[in-house]
Specification:
Layout lengths: L6 H4 L4 H13 L4 H8 L5 H14 L2 E6 L2 E6 L4 H15 L4 H12 L6
Antiparallel strand pairs: 1-2
Helix pairs in contact: 2-3, 2-4, 3-4
């Protein structure tokens, strides 16, 4: 089994598998039907399911089942994913200001009640 430790490994996948993998990474967690909706024009629903299984075997995505629902998720945390999370944090809680985030972190470290 090939180990995929970076997004550059995904670039080495066959075109259709790469498209399905990128859809899972965009959605962050999705059922086979949701992935198919993302790539609908490219492949049939059953072809997407086959590609999802291949990508799980290759370690590109993971499969989980909860309450009877099967979902697929990225296995790689990319710099882009991290950056997007920081931007969402800044916009949601700190008016988009990195300075306000740093002030809050400093206040937390010094046990100040203000954040």
């Amino acid at each position: 089994m090939t180990e995929f430790r970076s997004m550059s490994g995904i670039d080495q996948l066959p075109p259709r598998e790469r498209e399905v993998a990128r859809a899972v990474y965009r959605l962050t967690e999705a059922s086979a039907a949701e992935v198919w909706m993302e790539v609908r024009g490219a492949s049939s629903h059953s072809a997407v399911r086959v590609m999802l299984s291949r990508l799980v075997k290759k370690g590109v995505i993971s499969r989980s089942k909860s309450l009877g629902r099967v979902t697929y998720s990225p296995t790689l945390i990319t710099d882009g994913v991290k950056q997007a999370a920081v931007v969402r944090l800044l916009e949601s809680y700190f008016d988009g200001s990195p300075e306000k985030l740093l002030q809050c972190l400093h206040a937390e470290r010094s046990h100040s009640p203000r954040c």
